[in-house]
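Annotators were shown the component list below and the corresponding predicted structure, then asked to write short factual statements about the assembly.
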Amino acid sequence: MDWIQRWSRRIAHFFRRAAVEREMDEEMRHHVESEIADRIARGMAPDEARRTALIAFGGVERFKEEGRDARWGRLLGDLSQDLRIGLRTLRRNPGFTAGSVLTFALGIGAATAIFSVVYGVALRPLPYTDPARLVTLWERDTSHGGGVNVVAVPNFEAWRDRSGAFSGMAALVPQSATLMGAGQPERASGALISPGYFALLGVPPAMGREFTPEEGENGGADVVMLSDAFWRRRFGGDPSVVGKTVMIGGRAHAIVGVMPRTFEPPSFFWLGQQDLWFPFGATAGNRSWGRFLLVVARLRPGVTLNQARDEMARLARQRAAEDPTDRGWSVTAVGLGQEITGDVRASLFVVLAAVGLLLLMAMVNVAALTLAFARRREHEYAVRRAIGATRPRLLRQLLTQSGLLGIVGGAVGLVTALWGVRALVLLLPTDTPRLTSIHVDLPVLLFTLGGVLLATLVFGGAGVTGSTRGVQALHRGSPGRVTSGRGAGTLVVTEIAFGLVLSVCATLMVRSWVALRAVDLGFSTQGVVAARIALSGGDRYATPDQQRAFFAGLLDQIRALPGVRTASVMSIRPFGGPGPATSVADPAQPLAAGSVPPVTDVRVIDPALFSTLQIPLLAGASFDSRQAPGAPPGVIVNRALVRALGFPVDGAVGRRVALDMYGGITPRIVGIVGDIHLMDQRTSPRPTAYLSAVQFPSTQADLIVRGDGDPGRLLAAVQASVALLDRGIPVYDGAPLGQVIDSSLARDRFTTLLLSGFALVALLLAAVGVYGVFAGEVARRRREMGIRLALGAPAGMVVRLIVRQGIGRAALGITLGAGVALLLVRPMVPIMFGITPTDPASFAGVAILLLGVAFLATAVPALVAARVSPLEVIRAE
Amino acid sequence: MLDAQPDLLQGTLDLLILKTLEPGPLHGWAISKQIQLTSRDLLTVNQGSLYPALYRLEDRGWIRGATSVSAQGRRVRAYHLTGAGRRQLGREVETWRRFASAMQYVLATP
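Structure shown to annotators:
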């Protein structure tokens, strides 16, 4: 490869160019001296010989210059010269340099930081073998138009045994457990998993082995696998932990394996943090529990997601024919990646689009700065063209200069991004999927590099169009008389349009956020705290009587605490995630053939719950001594359930409802309470049935306590009461209920905060950009203004002239921006609440705001123009 | 004379330098003297433009310069042909011959 050798020679020469220069010097001096000696030898006088030899040799510098060109190529030489000129120019114009670098750094920094979050959460491939082939399988309640639903055991077994589209299928159930032994009892969360699940993901354990199929039989053996973090924290990273036993929920479990540190367990739906895994196995019992499984499967090579969906639909029809409880249900498959990041995707991509716009605005601003800068130097460039600089040569020099700006801006931006990513991770809701995989790495750096390159071309391009038009600029006369205003107007329109788009998005998010916050939840969180407990300790809490007795004693004790007003238990606290739900019917009225019964959420409570959460009792009474253990069960229903059953509110008490739970019960309605938002603010309250904790005791519940004073102290007192009864019972997830509700909005808060921040920066950029353009315009038209004033134009007219121009351009920008915004807000629909994306008030408000910004940004330079002294201007010519 | 018409026959100087270096290494001044001598004073190489030509040939990889110390104890840079330079010389001589005979035919035509 000739050219490789040649270029390596050139580069080598370039880097030792001081030595090369000296060699050239020496060589040429030697030549001249030899020539002189030769001439003397031929009889010339020494002085004459020297003079003629020098003349004969010619211009040493020119030959050296040609020599340099030959030595390291013109490009390298020019580049180093351009870099020197560029650095000098930038140093001599600190205002321009600082403005460009800061604007650019802000844009590229914000964009890089946001991109690293989006990449980490939504784009980085999942850390499993061939993750694109992993899917989740769901049942769908098609007769109710329901979304995805968890899966019943018999259906899972049928799919696993009969489908041909998958090379493997595993079921998961969230499972938390209490660890006993040395130290405090500890509540840890995890999952029951089908043996073979980790092999399905393609992640083998770091130590030990995965569960064997035998361990999954008969409901699962007493074996456990640990996460790396849990192994380090609880077992001090003991390398011989595999094979040891640990007491979990009162039973000795053998530790069979530890997962690697890099393992990111898929968390979706109700699977959260996972530190422990137990084997899952089907039993006669859990086959009749209804739907509760999560299912992950791997597509066989060559099978597409749609083919799998078709096969599953066929299997669902088979199952519906076999089992009446599967009538009206179908199956759907969703990619695992989409399932994990599904609901954050929308808001993340909105934020990414917004930051992209911000970056564009920053570039437009820098382009405006460069254009103004280049225009001031148009005369200089024209002179350089006139005395022989070629156009490509000037272009190269300008591009080098903007490349320097890009590199410096990119470096500052990268530092901003590193800092910003850290801030964003803190700001992100803690339940954001894949939070740990967010960091600045190669793909993110490539993104930044792309931004720098693009920006360099934009800056350079802007400077070039304005500055190398050439010699004709000289014809226009003295410097500063150049009259072209093209480009500047476009920039103003663009800035205003982008500013409008971002501000509209932010306004919509803020109004949506306000609407979410204003939702009446139907209950009060004032002074309420919640904490979860799980009874564990072998057979001490095995029977319903033992469980009932414990909770009764505990509630008595908590109610006696100073500062406690009311105390209650609830199977799952409001906003505490999905809970059991079942179909419900009026037993007096057999279901019409083909129709499908409504579904209700079911919560098991202590009757004090309604006073604790201040949920109004609309009819009937709360639970009392009549709902004793063993007595016929009672139920309290909410208004939505009454409506779903078609009962009249004032005639519903005393009627029976059939619930498909606990093997089918038909409790009598004892009371009707107001609707509450049990899961979130967005969906309207769902039918809910409350059963008595006395009649349906269990080992797990949330304590819901209302008190006066500091919630932290209240929680500590509750914890102490539990410990007083049994030191072995862990109290966890303690928090003020208001905080639980707030954190459910963390994602909306994140999006709203970021978009508002972007909108503020965008408004600032727009203001600065428009001001800059008009300040330049006024400077350019100084002479014209002077003449107008000298000829008697009133100062007010001059101001109006400029402001009118500004407002005109702003109006155009607003119109264009509104059009773009109408298109861009469409993807925001899923994350908005209580507001239409085309909300006219938001659009109008933002339009007025931007007109105001444009007015201020043009009025200031206009006032400066009106103060021009006509005499001074005309004399200056 | 070559230096009077620098644009005349681009590449001629390259050929002259390569040919002059064929017998063995020479330094810059000696190359110009040698060309003058062998052309019987018909060609005088513009001494200054010799060096850019030398650097260009070195850049192409046809000749290589090496610094050595002369008998008078001075550092002198002498150039020698490389293998590629020798092949190039062969090609250029061939080209030149064809060109010269073509010129002959053209000029001989009445």
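Statements collected:
1. The radius of gyration of chain B is 15 Å.
2. Residues 1-8 of chain B have pLDDT under 50 and may be disordered.
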